[in-house]
Design a protein that fits this description.
The complex is a heterotrimer of chains A (about 280), B (about 325) and C (about 290). Chain A has about 280 residues and is mainly α. Chain A has helices at about 5-45, 50, 65-95, 100-115, 120-135, 140-160, 165-175, 180-190, 190-205, 210-215, 235-245, 245-275. Chain C has about 290 residues and is α/β, with parallel strands linked by helices. Chain C has a single domain (about 40-290), classed as Rossmann fold. The chains are: A mainly alpha (about 280), B mainly alpha (about 325), C alpha/beta (about 290).
Chain lengths: ~280, ~325, ~290
Amino acid sequence: MLTRYDKYRKLKSGFMSALAVFCAILVVLPLILVFFYLLKMGVSSLSWDFITQLPKPAGEEGGGMANAIVGTLELMGLALVMGVPIGLLGGIYLAEYGGGKTNAWIRFGADVLNGVPSIVWGMVGYILAVVPMGGFSAFSGGLALAFIMVPLVLRTTEEVLVLVPSGYREAASALGIPRWKITYHIVLRTAFKGIVTGVLLALGRVAGETAPILFTALGSNVWNNSIKEPIAALPIQIYYYALSSFPDQNNQAWAGALVLIILVFLLSATVRFLTSRRSKI
Amino acid sequence: MSQTTTSPALPARAADMAEPSRLGNRLFEGLTFVSAMMIGVLFLLVAYVLIDGARLAMSQYGWEFLTNTHWNPVTDNYGALPFIFGTVVTSAIALIIAVPLSIGTAIFLTDLAPLRLRQPLTSIIEMLAAVPSVIWGLWGLFVLLPWLHDYPYTWVSKHLSGIPLVAGPIQGAGACIMSAGIIVAIMILPIVTSVSREILRSVPDLQREAAYGLGATRWEVTRIAVLSYARRGLMGAAVLGLGRALGETMAVTMVVGNSPKINASLLQPGWTLASVIANQFGEAATDIQRSVLFEIGLVLVCVTILVNIGALLLIKSIDGPGSRRA
Amino acid sequence: MNPVMTSKSFAMSDTAKSASAPVPATPPESSIPAPAPAAAKSEVAFDIQDLSVFYGSHQAIKNVNLKIPAMSVTAIIGPSGCGKSTALRALNRMHELSPGARHTGKILMKGEDLYGPGIDPTVVRRRVGMIFQKSNPFPTLTIAENVLVGLRLNGVRDKAFLSRRLEESLKMAALWDEVKDHLNRPGTGLSGGQQQRLCIARALAVRPEILLMDEPCSALDPIATAKVEELIHALKSEYTVVIVTHNMQQAARVSENTAFFYMGSLIEFGPTEQIFMNPKNPQTEAYVSGRFG
């Protein structure tokens, strides 16, 4: 026997549920739209030339973003080399050593650093590398990106190491293996996949960053020959080409964006594959 | 047969093994300690670079900097208020749009969605988070802006032009504060949704069961048992979204209009703290101009760090040791 | 009449060599070179003097005095929380891995205090091996790598030596026949009982003088348990074994001497048969007759 009020309550509940569904649809919508337009606008300008040629001067049609594609990979490599060891070792410290209070502060600090706007790291890179070196360079771009990677990798490493069951550490201790060898040979090996996952995630994040490399790596229209020279990168190229008044360059911006998103999603897909049930348990 | 010789390299018994050097342990611990301390070093670097860089501007303008509305490279008259205004307003717009949508989606994911849908939907939201800022800017510039301009903005300026909040005329392609707010909203959706979802998931089933047992409808259960229990955590999720919104740079700079003016109307162009730095840093011609940008960076970082600390504290207070990273 | 007594007889003396109790059905693989028998000479493996162990402010072990005889199996029994695991861990300094752990008193192994200044716990742990309740072969290592890890990570490289030691240890653990063709499979691919024997092989590979076992069979089915118990019988001619168990029948089956702990104190220690059939202490009697547990 439902009263009118009960009917109202049921209706309201149904309405709210519908609203929740509506929210979910609205959240998914932008992604669908982005992909749709990336494909629509980007594929037409994506060509073999695009991937292999250097940019043409403004106003001239054609050319490509070969140097930007390579440049992005190079910057990622630099960021990896400069940022991952520190993040990894720091994560090991938090998981295996240290006291409760110090560690809590470090963890908190890393979380806060993860929220600092990335452009600030560009400014730090500018002062620490560009100014002393007298110019923009791949090195300073990699450095700015490494700043972003350190707190990220530190936290993901720690989270993964903490998950390694303590029974393994105990068993290794009971065998009379020195502590650092336990951490290095047993714990790290067991957590290896998780650590790699964390690094890949950080790389994916850093691949798309524009602000920190705008005034450290600067961007370029030619091949990069040295770590001390400016270097092109996909995000920078996309940015400038998007704002350009030449439609050809606008189109190339879409193509570059498509390449960039493919790169980022390749990294995510690798992560997903590694964390799935297959491969090494 | 049995070992007749024994040595550390071929130990017959454990007692024959070489004594391990303590050096290995000490070195390793020291190395990892130094690396962990780099977190502190990074903080110091940020502080040093920004404060040192801003020193010139700070000594020249003092606290007035924060209230000055001018931006004149010719007369070296700079003020940060337009950017503070722009940041505050775009972030507010972003929150107003994103937080209800995110919480609604989180509710959908935790309570309503059929199980088969949950993983794909979660994956989609993760993918949303992975899209770089500059690509949002590109899409915003060429897809969203024209659409906003042709439909909502034109409609508003035709029918609601009397309201100062949305007064026209619409500049060019539709680049304005409102557009920036919408783009930022899209960009913070993933993080607010996933954190909200974690928060809602951590609400013990007992709460829900108790409410169902009393005969509550689905919505009432959600409202009474889940949302009120999770209120602090959800606030934390929103504040975390705010922290992200404050720092969004590239997408904003491509759609916000880049104008150093404060307007009452949301449909007018503006600028934010982060986007003005991105836009001007490469072109800063004078020391004072560059120093001003450092000071703006300092303001941005201080506000962002405070907001993020607030978010983390709110989230940790409900989530315990497994709190999410920013 | 003590209901715990089994039909099998057990050795009565508490001196070094004693006649093995139930003869295992299959003799352990022979032709294994004995480790240099330095340990056999002394009668006492551990001389525990006035040992107390604290975790923070909580005292887990109170003033224990105990001489554990060498080359035999000593069981430690007692109800949950009585400190038997803590006592066992104190014997290879494993309790130090817990935060806030400290001790007073001495434990002498062949005259040397295990906790003396300058003694590296790592060295102690090589000489005193440990088997845990839950078997824990290292997941990223193969069977062979698991067995040899204690040697390899302590600098032993000689391939011939290692491969000999691998075979010997697996034979001692009665696992060789079952795995000799699969030495490169992951260590975690074995059954529960096999994994525990793998852990025993791993512990034996470094040739400790003493083997500690913390409820090694509690996670195993009866058949696997029987195999491990056979193993213990075979080992005691060359090793000192100290086994913590909550299973009194098991203690009666495998050990020559038994120590009964209650609430952190050693209540009684003596030949196993005497502890179970004729305990001197009323608390011991109450426990072994099942009046409390």
